[in-house]
Amino acid sequence: MILKKAKYKFKGRVHSKNGILSFLLGIAVIISFFTISIISGINKGQGDIVLGAIGITTFLASVYGFLAGYKSFQEKDIYLVAPILGIGINGIMLISLFCLYILGIVL
């Protein structure tokens, strides 16, 4: 008698598209923040309006990444690694950029 091998397929959990989007936006926000900081440092803090516009766009991308990560938590049967990392990165960058803008207004 020949025994057949059992074939198992694990279905159900998938990677959330919103979670992956949130994580990738978080990485893009970090890269953008450090790029803007380096360019501003090279110009001795006298950046032009283009750097400010890129900074505002970075802030808005961080907000969108945070909301996309939050939205992905409402999906069922997903892996939670990307949404957790996306919310963490975007949340930290959101707070950092907001504090930086408040300091820029006050000072």
From TrEMBL:
TM helices/strands, residue ranges: 20-43, 49-67, 79-103
Domain of life where this protein originates: Bacteria
InterPro entries according to UniProt: DUF6142
Lineage: Bacteria, Bacillati, Bacillota, Clostridia, Lachnospirales
Protein name: Uncharacterized protein
Keyword tags: Membrane, Transmembrane, Transmembrane helix
